[in-house]
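Can anyone check this?
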Amino acid sequence: MKILLLAGTGEARALAKLLADHGQEVLASLAGVTRAPAAYPVPTRIGGFGGKAAQQAFMTKHGFDAVVDATHPFAAQISSRSHEISGILSMPYLRLLRSEWRAESGDGWRFIDQPGEASAHIPTGARVFLATGAASVADWAELAEGRTLFCRRVDATDDPFPYDGGWIVGRPPFSLEEELNTLRSLSITHLVSKNAGGPTSAKLLAARQLGLPVVMLNRPALPDCDCVETPDEALAWLTNLKA
């Protein structure tokens, strides 16, 4: 089979290795948001498709037999579009989506569906670690009113931070000690996070240890499609598809 792997996560890279080891023909596609991303063990393209029509033309031209969407849990636009195009082309589509984080004893989590709901849970004067990614920083303008925000990004930029506060530059994964140092050095009082799931939850462990409240943004709705949580399960799905 010829597989289009919509990538950009640790699960995508692990699946790419599994598929390469099994001799599958794979093209990994990265959005190009991160500079110098870690290499994949399969042919890789970097950059957007240029919209729905261009993506459909690309998928048709290259004759893929299946699509595995292993993008970030909050990459709702590309997931919805890829699922729709796959349906048009009668192309099997699988969503590889790691499990969510779940609150444990001692966690003070508040769940929201939209960024605009966060201000109801965080008082003015708060110092907020916005661990939601630089691409979505504009979505938190309402939260910035009367509060100091710090947002983490992978690559440094000359773009000024749009609110009171500043950028935090760093490439994951981060250890618990690193996250504790970040929260303490900035006198953070609240943490805001997307429920991305996965193993890199040190910021949540640090917030628990320091007794900090967490506002957790729920994931966007998932398309009605086949879905697995691990690369091994994705490989099994593809193997069954081939059979």
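Reply from J.R.: I decoded it. The mean pLDDT is 94.
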